[in-house]
Prior knowledge:
This protein is an all-alpha fold. It has two domains: 8-57; 69-174, Homeodomain-like (Arc Repressor Mutant, subunit A, Orthogonal Bundle), CATH 1.10.10. 69% of the residues lie in helices and 0% in strands. It contains nine helices and no strands. It has helices at residues 8-26, 32-57, 69-80, 88-95, 99-110, 114-132, 137-144, 149-160, 164-174. The relative contact order is 0.09.
Amino acid sequence: MTVTSSSAPVSAWIGPVLALARQEATTPAPGAQAIFAKLADVFLTQALRACLTGAACNGLYRPGPPPDPPIAHAIALIRDQLDRPWTVQALARASGLSRTAFTTRFRAATGEPPIQHLVNVRLSQAAAYLTSADLTIDAIAARIGYASDASLSKAFKRHFGVSPGSYRAANLRTGRREAPTTVR
Length: 184
């Protein structure tokens, strides 16, 4: 991973930290070694934060399941079988709940309806594939449960505000591997 000063989360902290490091290097004073050690901790922590944030945006990092076991099971099914034509009824049945109970508990556990979660996971995975795999948009669509590249493209553009092809081209041009900001 490369941490650059041009990325928004980095630009807020890197300047002041580098200025402090320069000051300590040019005018050494007692405790300089301790300051450098703490600055190294700051750099490492911020780099890890940027990495995890980027991974989460790209669908590569998945926080632990919610504490509700049937909902955790449904989330695992979505994640592990993204290409299946999931419906609320199918997820509820697989979780051993009625459709109403499943929808209510899912929203309580995740903060979003089941189908919205499914769409978010699919589109995050699409963004990850676009920046990390040499797959056609049609192949990506098939892997994540869309019937065609056109249906994926429409959903991707509605969700992120750019087409998958434009997103891939922009990321190749800049060398960045970040998910687009949701525009909704």
